[in-house]
Amino acid sequence: MQNINRRQFLGTIAKPAAVASVVMTNPTLMAKALSGIRSTAGNPKDIARDESFWREIQQGYTADRSMINLNNGGVSPAPRVVQEAMKRHLDFSNTSPAYSMWQILEPQREPVRRRMARFFKCSPEEIALTRNASEGLQILQNGLDLSSGDEVLTTTQDYGRMINTFKQRECRDGIVMKQFKIPVPAENDNEIVRLFEKNITTKTKMILMCHMINLTGQILPVKKVVRMARKYDIPVIVDGAHAFAHFDFDVTDLECDYYATSLHKWLCAPHGTGMLYVRKNKIPGLWPLQASNECGKDDIRKFEEIGTHPAANYLAIGDALTFHQGIGSKNKEARLTYLRDRWAKRLLKHDGITLHTSLKPKKGCAIATVQVEGIETSDVAKHLWSKYRIFVVAINHKEFTGCRVTPHVYTTLEEIDRFSDAMETILKNGV
Q1: N or C: which terminal CB in the chain sees fewer CB atoms within 10 Å?
Q2: CATH architecture of 104-320
Q3: Rg (CA), the chain
């Protein structure tokens, strides 16, 4: 069989699914395609600037180019091949749902589980496929036993839904949530670890921390906090909603026991997909959100007991993973960093600009939050949309404010430059 080079592989992703699927669904062809990509690949920093490469990736999406979407941190579009895979599975589900969905499609979750585990470098028996990061985190936050008076520790910058989960346990169980501030931006790992440790008391029974903070894109030192907390026998729940498939890492880089993420963000899987990692020996002591058929069992699948659900979403995760691997984790991280730096470094040359995100290596990636001094952040965001059809998120936190800017691999350099042009006009003329 003829080998497939990188350009041939990338060419398939921009074509209709009937053509693309010849490669994307054939394991032999896919292996050859990925081999071709790796054989022609160079340094990730060089690939980050290879516009011919990224132009092919961009054409694999069905993005609305009448606007500039810089809110990919909320939810990302799925590539065309992922959309088509999901539609294909959904169509088959509806031929005879009770049979086709449960007898044929549902068992196919297992190969997806195995692939995700291999990518994350853990056992398939430690991976549950969920609907989003919030579901995975709530399994952890509600599933670990806590008693009245027990303390849970987190920062003031954690995701609101997760904070509300602890607030509900305060009302229901009488626990105490303790929060503390961290620097913005945070560039000293040891200082972050010190702040976590400083706030531990004899009553602390759980720590919740972000891998990447959704407000600013700040990457926190998970491994260092986990190692510190183990000295006190305190479990650490890691919120990886914005980290997985965003920058290059796996579970061996974290050493954590619990990790939850969304797959519809940076992996570009179908909307409503997520992943939960629980270390094997921790599964029996963790309660599922919805009852399974055995109390305390050690099967990771007990966390997937949610009643009737579509198989199509979960099966198309495999297509999203294939697409991601075709790009390469390191290449993707380098490209996203390059896009962020292109606009951020340009705007930082101007007075009146504050960046609440570190540009230092391994402290952030695609997400960054920028403030125009003297103008309300909400007004900046509204003006960007009404005047330029540029979509960003206004972040109004008690400790800082700014527009969160989040490009993705389908974002073009022209779109980044148009955003920078618009921001410079706002700096000059206001809103």
Answers
A1: N
A2: 3-Layer(aba) Sandwich (3.40)
A3: 22
CATH level 3 topology of 331-429: Aspartate Aminotransferase, domain 1 (3.90.1150)
Q: Tell me: the pLDDT tens digits for 263-307?
A: 999 999 999 999 999 999 999 999 999 998 776 689 999 999 999
Whether residue 25 contacts residue 376, with contact meaning beta carbons closer than 8 Å, is answered with: no
Distance CA 326, CA 84 (A): 17
pTM tops 0.70: yes
As a whole number, mean pLDDT of residues 162-175 equals 98
| Domain parsing of the chain, residue ranges | 1-40, 104-320, 331-429
- Amino acid 1 reads M
Cis peptide before 185 (omega within 30 of 0): yes
What are 307's two structure tokens? Answer: 């009643």
Q: Three-state SS across 336-392? A: HHHHHHHHHHHHCCCCCEEECCCCCCCCCCCCEEEEECCCCHHHHHHHHHHHHCEEC
226 within 8 A of 192, measured Cβ to Cβ: no
Q: Helices 51-58 and 6-13: crossing angle, nearest 10°?
A: 30
CB count, 10 Å around CB of 180?
13
CA torsion, points 408, 414, 420, 421, in degrees to nearest 10?
-150
Closest CA to 289 of 144, 110, 123, 107: 144
Please answer whether residues 2 and 26 qualify as being in contact, where contact means their C-beta atoms are separated by less than 8 angstroms: no
Rounded to whole angstroms, how far apart are CA atoms 93 and 102?
9
Residue type, 156: T
Q: How far is CA 422 from the centre of its chain?
A: 28
